[in-house]
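Private note to self, pasted from the team thread so I don't lose it. Backbone tokens:
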């Protein structure tokens, strides 16, 4: 029958043999660092893709709001700024052309959301007959792709600084990671 150690045997053990050795601790730390080195780039890439998807969704929201704004204020046409599509701090009881109350997301109407900067440029005519909305990454860590759209609703996805080409619903730059 195997013998069981008693409390006295545990107390009388050699104190130099208690705990972990430095080599064992270093091995554990190295394993943790290797796992982190593998996982962190994938997490950053996933966050960038999520920001890019959120930017595409926000551009679609802006396009819808622009159509509604144009219908509500035909004498103005399309809104010339994101702030005109938002509330501008009003209660929205009586929307006007300067606070259309069509986008209730204050982050989006401020022009910065999910690591992307949004901007509307109207054609400058009264009433505005066309516009372009662009979303560019705030930094290299928030996204790689620029998203643009116009009054036609076509969404163009490209690398920042490169021209967007084509006229489909969603256009990516081949091999750029912006599909």
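Design output:
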């Amino acid at each position: 029958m195997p013998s069981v150690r008693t409390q006295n045997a545990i107390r009388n053990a050699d104190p130099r043999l208690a705990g972990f050795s430095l080599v064992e601790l270093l091995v554990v730390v190295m394993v943790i660092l290797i796992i982190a080195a593998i996982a962190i780039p994938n997490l950053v890439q996933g966050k960038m893709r999520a920001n890019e998807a959120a930017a595409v969704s926000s551009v679609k929201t802006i396009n819808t709001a622009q159509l509604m704004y144009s219908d509500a204020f035909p004498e103005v046409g399309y809104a010339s700024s994101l702030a005109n599509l938002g509330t501008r701090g009003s209660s929205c009881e009586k929307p006007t052309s300067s606070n259309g109350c069509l986008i209730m997301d204050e982050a989006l109407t401020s022009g910065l959301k999910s690591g992307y900067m949004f901007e509307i440029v109207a054609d400058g005519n009264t009433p505005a007959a066309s516009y372009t909305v662009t979303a560019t990454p705030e930094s290299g860590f928030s996204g790689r792709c620029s998203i643009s759209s116009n009054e036609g609703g076509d969404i163009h996805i490209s690398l920042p600084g490169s021209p967007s080409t084509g006229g489909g619903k969603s256009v990516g730059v081949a091999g750029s990671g912006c599909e």
